[in-house]
Design goal:
Elements lengths: L5 E5 L2 E4 L10 E4 L5 H26 L4
Antiparallel strand pairs: 1-2, 1-3
Length: 65
Amino acid sequence: MGKGTVYVIKNGQTQIAESGNQPKNALLFAASGKSLAQMIIEQTEQFKENAELVRSRLAAASKWD
C-alpha cells in the first residue's frame, strides 16, 4: 500500500480508488503512516481521556446541591 493512496473495497475486492464518485456500498480507506505501536498508544490515551471525561460528567451530574 503506497503512501497517500486511497483504496476502495467493492464486492469483496480491494483496488486503488479512481477519482470521482464511488458506489454507496463501497468502503474507502487509506494506509496510515503510523506504526501499529503508535496507533495503540494513541488509542489508549484517547480511551483514558474519554473515560475521565465520562467520570467527571457523571460525578457532576450526580451531585446534590
